[in-house]
Fold each of these.
Amino acid sequence: MKRRSSVVRKPAKKLARKRAVEWELRLYIAGQTARSVAAGANLQRICDQYLEGRYRIEVVDLLMNPKLAQGDQILAVPALVRRLPSPLKKFIGDLSNEERVLVGLDIRPLAKAAR
Amino acid sequence: MAKATLAKHLKSVTAGGSVAHKLRKARSGIDGLDDITGGGLPYGRPTLVCGGAGSGKTLFAMEFLVRGATEYGDPGVFVAFEETPEELAANVASLGFDLHKLQAQKKLAVDCVRIDPSEIEVTGAYDLEGLFVRLQYAIDSVGARRVVLDTIENLFGGLHDEQILRAELRRLFRWLKAREMTVVITGEKGDGTLTRQGLEEYVSDCVIFLDHRVVEQNSTRRLRVVKYRGSPHGTNEYPFLIDEGGLSILPLSSVGLTHRASTERISSGIARLDEMLGGKSFYKGSTVLVSGTAGTGKTSVAMCFANSACSRGERSVLFTFEESPEQLVRNMRSVGIDLERHLKSGLLKIVASRPSSHGLEMHLATMHRVINQFHPDVVVIDPITNLFSVGSPSEVQSMMTRLIDFLKVRGTTAMCTSLTSATSELEQVAMGVSSLVDTWVMLEVLRSGRERNRSLTIIKSRGSAHSNQTSEFRLSNRGFELMDTYLGPTGVLTGSARLAQEAQDQATLAVHAGKLERSTEERVRQRKLLKNRIAALREEFATQDADIEGSIQEETMRRDSLIAERHAMARSRQAFASVGRARKPAGSRSR
């Protein structure tokens, strides 16, 4: 874990390990509601913009896999869980507040460094 | 199998039956609750159970689920917002509920919902669909008919957007109703409101309030049905108890004066006392009060009663507030009552506790529970006056009323002893209780000379003739001995005064007896004497009679010979012709 996070913090290695997944995100939705779709789109946009190539998004539709809700203690949907890098972080809502998502995911400073 | 489950399920639901508009109810299985609510919680609707911290909300909810799953074939889902599954299982294990087993049997599903506001970032619009999904999944996994949300208010702490939350809660209750789930929602008591977050706003069908009060260091749990839409219900505060058997609520005050009256009699165990009660003793199912000052033998009378019941093969429970079971057994042995034998045979149960160990209601609840489990024919409470120290007079009266009602409905014969202080008037002795009891036996100590002697009087006995006499009684290793008190010219005598009087009587009697004997002897003697005299006289008479007879014969013979001589003379003179004629005149002449 520690190694991985150090990897993230080293921009020099960024290009070399372009395809390495440093961001593991899981989006929980409950059916294809407008809110789910918006959340999906918002997440995609943010990741594309700031974490290009370093992320993996897993979308869990709780209507299909209700069992999975218990594991991450999902109550509100849409919910985003940052599984990596640690620590685990949770976001609820349709991710329309980009500022909050970026701060919450700790992307902001990284993104600046990348620029 | 499926049929059986269905039948069970139908049994669990007090269906409206022919009356279509009548509310369907789901039996809670909680001891006493179904009596208060007239059959259980509203079927297919949510019920709010609220109360302060430690008032038993979670246990109430859990018992509702577990009883449903085990007794009525209704699987359930427990959604815990406070505790982890492990904590929950450990907490209710003390009530005898094995959650792991029930979960393994697919009768119960437990889902623990944790929300930590510090690790959640709100990034836009959301709803609680996740909760719905989890609930649906849990319901489907066991085929649940009952759901518990404990305590859903915790969501307000985890999620700050109250507007969304309230909208979602409203949706949740609609959702649960649409699925015909019988739901119990717990809620923490708020300041001046039933719940902190005003959950009563969403749950309007049935609200139950639990209370845990401490009065004079004694805690009592109480339950009240605040509202029950569409159904009559008991409105009082009912004390309840949480112990190894789960919750038990005492709907005792709901009992009316409708109990049946038995004409069967049950012996007091003291033959003489039975005799004083018209020769028949107590009615079965009646309540007997034995009052008296210290050391009058109340406990012994009561134990004698229990002992005789056990000897007849009936079951007895003794609630003692003064002595430990062992001490009681030992002490009773000294008056010839062997309680140990009955303890061993299981016919007797002794429940000993200090009155101050619980509140009044708790005592009542304990008795209620013990009686319900043991099914005794005879209950002895020794002494009820010790309970009076725990509560106010009105509380005690209400408790005694409920206890006696409860026993009467069961047809259990009860004997309560009551300690009275030597200075108080008889009327004060058991003011609260005297009107409730059917038979009142008063034990007294009569002081005479330098002694104290025990006496027994029947003050009242409803529906049976009873002696108006005061009897003296003695306790010895042979048990009870009741004696008539001596009513002499100087008043009632007891103890040695009675013995002295009795001895004197005995002496007088002996003198009388001697006299009588002597008279009888005299009479016999006289009779004999007279008889002898009569015999002598008779003899004398016979002798005289014989003498007279002899002389008569002699005279006759002499006369005959005279006549014969005369005839011979005449013949010799040859005066034949005149002989015949002259014979008779001669004979008559000679006379």
Amino acid sequence: MGMTITEKILAAHAGKDRVEPGELINCKVDVVLGNDITAPVAIKEFEKIGVPDVFDKEKVVLIPDHFTPNKDIKSAEQAKILRDFAKKQGLTNYFEVGRMGIEHCLLPEQGIVLPGDAVIGADSHTCTYGALGAFSTGVGSTDMAAGMASGEVWFKVPGSIKFVFNGEKLNEWVSGKDLILYAIGDIGVDGALYEAMEFTGSAISNLSMDGRFTMANMAIEAGGKNGIIAPDQTTIDYVESRAKRPYKVYRSDDDAKYERVIEYDVADIEPQVAFPHLPENTRPISEVGTVEIDQVVIGSCTNGRMEDLRIAAKVLQGHEVHPDVRLVIFPGTQAIYKQAMKEGLFEIFVDAGASVSTPTCGPCLGGHMGILAKGERAIATTNRNFVGRMGHPESEVYLSNPAVAAASAILGRIAGPEEVD
Amino acid sequence: MEFQGRVWKFGADVDTDAIIPARYLNTSDPAELAKHCMEDADPEFPNKVKTGDIIVAQKNFGCGSSREHAPICIKAAGVSCVIAKSFARIFYRNSFNIGLPILESPEAVDNIDEGDEVKVDVDNGIIYNLTKGASFKSTAIPPFMQELIDSGGLINYVRRRLNR
């Protein structure tokens, strides 16, 4: 019996020839990640273990990105715990405000995560790196602490669900965001609980790296342990110039065993909108009806990459944001910020009446930089639309791709880009 | 380990933002976090909950973010254990790691109402609804998780391994 890509990576990191779903393994990790919310708790727990140093100064990555630039005194204290720890431990991969990015945009961009890696991060969207053909999953602070000390983590080997996206060409304005929202809408927010979600098919082969990151990023929104896409030439082209160490390409065997195989035809998939208050409440854009909005957020670890900003600019060019709407755009990293500036995208955004922020997770989790008041409604390219996610418990969040978000900003209601002249 | 307390019942897919909204995550102090426990699911919960009380919820409890602040604030609010039809995986790991007892039992969830008095025998995985006079079995805790519990949590387990 063959193995899936997830099983192969886990077996290799557990020093075994093969592993089976359900098996408990102790696994070596290539990267341990934390941010300004989760790492302070992890650092406190790390200090209880009683080892002086982290297992590897290059493999522990700390990024203050959630409440930074520091939103208040308490947040400043939290961020300082990371800074002090990074200095004391001599960590290579600590990224300060002004040189940083939203963690899940930054790590692939900097070549810190590579194909074949096993990665844990104290952030649920750590599953993003599965787009590179790595096994990557979110954990809590205590797991992060144990990982920082030992370089190991225990896992139950997940079963795998194979998603096959058939069809050569996506419909107009459809992106990776719509494919993953469609799948979550189909299987539900616990449809892949504890499982690996493996994305395959001709539509995935044709998808850009940015689109693949978006898809793997939202595996957690279906309860998945990881999302994963086997590396191909698109992956290698992305990784080659960034990698500073060797990496290994794994692919699922033809006779690998799956818990389920789910097939979609991308011809059936329109741009999707997830209604409050769960990512599974999806509707195609043609069935949204009239939903007026107060705020639009374009960015985040889900959709804050170059392709996303270019699409938003394409829709916004020559238009103005609706008078009753605030449009907040936040690029994923400093490099993306600079590239967007170079391409003239910021001019388009600012001329349209949008605000452009330094990279931060801020508005996505209702931290800062764009909080909603009671009764307000937002459409966002982010990943969650839970109750109170972006502010007041009686506010509402709708999720979409960047094209729909940009069109909605212009029209003041949720709308597809073809409605914009 | 045995607990007894009054039940607070919640629905399906209670997410970590409902358990502890991100607006309070600029601290990791358990007592501070406890003041806002379950606030966006039930604003009165932090005032109503008493030490020993039990949370009972439908499927996929704790979905969403990896914030360990979620089980930390539930524990710090005095909740003795959480019973649900299923748990989201990161919340499940985190609960074991910080020592918040959690039990899976769809049958118990279907037969416990808000306000019921419930006794939980964690070691044997038995849930007694004292109000209704019924008992239910919870899904067995995997042996490795039991080893973690017996070691006094993940940090003690790792400390012992690394200092061996």
